[in-house]
Amino acid sequence: MTHTDPASISRMPDPTAYVPEMKDISAAFFRATGNQSVPRTTINLVHLRAGQIVGNTYLTVLNTSFLRKAGESEERITAVASWQDAPYFTEAERAALALVEATLQAAPHGRERVTDELYAEVARHYDKKALATLTIAIGQISFFIALAVIGKPQPVSSLADQQWD
Fold first, then answer.
1. Is 32 exposed, middle or buried (CB count within 10 Å of its CB: 0-12, 13-18, 19+)?
2. Which of 19, 32, 107, 127 is 20 to 30 A removed from 13 (C-alpha atoms)?
3. 114 in Cβ contact with 99 (< 8 Å)
């Protein structure tokens, strides 16, 4: 169903109205990634990069807002799109950004997405719990990518804002 209101861009109503269990799934993801083994800033950088990779305004606006509210500089936020040559990121953040890119982008034919070398680099910066948490954070954003690109909720700067028509 498509809305005819030109001010509206959401394609579907709030899915939690029809599948209320989604709130439990979302809450579980936030609890799992909020265990403090990976800095929340790193998770938001990863989520912002994921939104950029899939070209989704909802995810980029939301995660940019989270980073601003956490006090991140405009240079760091803006440079996420070109993190490989930007001087603003730690080696651990670079490893996390490389991991989300490898996970979400197609690999060249016949190549692994996440190579042993990349895994080793990420594991060099994150202990076992943090690596599991980072993996869950990438799964979390992948879950929300499906909702964002299919449902096309309103871009918001806070999860408290109205996202769905």
1. middle
2. 32
3. yes
Q: How far apart are CA 93 and CA 4, in angstroms?
A: 42
DSSP string for residues in 76-136: HHHHGGGGGG-TT--HHHHHHHHHHHHHHSPPPTTS-SS-HHHHHHHHHHS-HHHHHHHHH
Tokens describing residue 136: 């869950």
**DSSP letter (8 states) at residue 55:** T
pLDDT tens-place string over residues 79-132? 999 999 999 999 999 999 999 999 999 888 889 999 999 999 999 999 999 999
Q: How far apart are CA 55 and CA 57, in angstroms?
A: 7
| Sequence letter at residue 19 | V
Q: Among residues 18, 21, 20, 68, which one has the least CA distance to residue 45?
A: 68
Q: How far apart are CA 55 and CA 49, in angstroms?
A: 10
Do the Cβ atoms of 127 and 39 come closer than 8 Å?
no
pTM over 0.70, yes/no: yes
* Separation CA 111–CA 99 (nearest Å): 15
